[in-house]
Amino acid sequence: MSTTGSPLSVRDLTRESTAYVAGGLRLESVAASAISGSEPNRIRARWIVLYGTIAIALLTLAMAAMLTSETVSDARRLSVLAAVRGNRRWLWQHAALSVFLPIAAAGFLATLIYFLLPTAISTADARLEPSDAYATSAIVAALVIGAVAAAVSVRATRTTDPLAVRRG
């Protein structure tokens, strides 16, 4: 409680307590357990969005690596047919359908679910608000990683000599 009658800043008190006591102090108001939208929760919520964005990007990278590997393997097998037909454009079509489309679809589906889930769990006591920044970063990450993975797939396949592919 402030001696001047003005409200105290939880953020400033937390910073000061961390500076004086290793690990900081646990600061609570009288009714802190009953208030779910308190200042410490808002501070932590900002970090959760960052951690979620990093996790989505890492999962998307893993998915891109797996799909690129499979696509290059398939494209090397099919490159003999492409060499016979004289059509090199099929590599981009194959990469778009095998790499870019699944990654982009997963990004859009995850964003859609991210916006739909809070409607199912929101009650009169608690309301979860989806972050537009998080949703935008998830879609952008999926599109960029999908495009780069498709380009890597095409480039890796083009360096393959189609006549050197083993049969069997």
Would you give an account of this structure?
With 168 residues, this protein is mostly helical. It is 70% helix and 0% strand. The longest helix is centred in the middle third of the chain and has 47 residues. It is elongated, with a radius of gyration of 26 Å. The N and C termini lie far apart (79 Å). The model has no long low-confidence stretch (mean pLDDT 75). This is ABC3 transporter permease protein domain-containing protein. Keywords: Membrane, Transmembrane, Transmembrane helix.
Short note summarizing the structure:
With 168 residues, the chain is mostly helical.
Low-pLDDT stretches are none
- Biggest sheet details: none
Strand content: under 5%
From the spread of the alpha carbons, the general shape counts as elongated
Could you estimate the helical fraction of the residues in percent? 55-70%
Number of helices: 4
What is the gyration radius calculated from CA atoms? 26 Å
Overall structural class, as computed from helix and strand content, comes to: mainly alpha
DSSP, total strands: 0
Order of helices and strands: HHHH
What is the CA-CA span between the terminal residues? 79 Å
Mean pLDDT over the full residue set: 75
Protein name: ABC3 transporter permease protein domain-containing protein
Organism: Barrientosiimonas endolithica
Keywords: Membrane, Transmembrane, Transmembrane helix
Transmembrane segments: 48-67, 95-117, 137-157
